[in-house]
Amino acid sequence: MAKNPRNNGKRDVILKEAAKLFKEKSFGGASMRELAERVGIEAPSMYHHIASKDEILEIICFSIGNLYVSQLEDISRRELSVIEKLKELIRLHVRIMIKNGDAVSVANNDWKHLSDEKLKKFKELRSGYEKKVVELLKEGVESGELKAVNTSVTLFTILSAIRWVELWWRPNRGISAEELEESIITILLEGLVK
Fold it and tell me: Which of these, 18, 64, 114, 142, could form a disulfide with 107 (CB 3.0-4.6 Å)?
């Protein structure tokens, strides 16, 4: 992994373009040569900034995974009701997808291409995140804020119901990020019945 601070700018460009390329073609369908062309450098020069395509995937997946985990930990520590924490969790997902849609797509779809050791760690990271959300849901049931519905079903319904944002949202959709967040919160936590 490149440690030279001068290379950080180019490395960041490589990672951003790699996320776009992997989202378009998948990790398996993208080549380092194609990535180098997009970044505007010779393919051998890529290796001054990044060790391999596998390392790029690892950086993207773990940076997104760790971002979700750290933000959830922040939400969990706050003095809020469970409902308010769930609203913040939904906002978190929407904001990360809007800001980092390409990288989120790669982390959601290409993580299975991580090397065996990294794959195990990434699965543990995801599982740990899911367990923390389930704990929050159980806390809501115990406090009487939430209905006693199967927590795994609730967890995956919420996460699945938000996942489409990465593919759909664009600034020109006629809805602001804040309106999108509030619409999703209303549908998921309050429902559509008047």
Answer: 64
Structure tokens at 50: 């990044």
**How much is the pLDDT for 4?**
46
- What whole-number distance in Å separates Cα of residue 124 and Cα of residue 59? 16
| pLDDT (tens digit per residue) in 36-87 | 999 999 888 888 899 999 999 999 999 999 999 999 999 999 999 999 999 9
* Residue whose token pair is 């985990």: 69
Phi, psi for 27 (deg, rounded to 5): -60, -45
**3-class secondary structure, 170:** coil
Torsion 156-157-162-163 (CA) sign: positive
Asked whether 48 and 1 are in contact (CB, 8 A), the reply is no
Please work out, in degrees rounded to the nearest 5, the angle formed at the alpha carbon of residue 58 by the alpha carbons of 14 and 29. 65
* Helical residues (DSSP H) of 42-150, grouped into ranges: 43-46, 53-77, 82-99, 101-109, 116-143
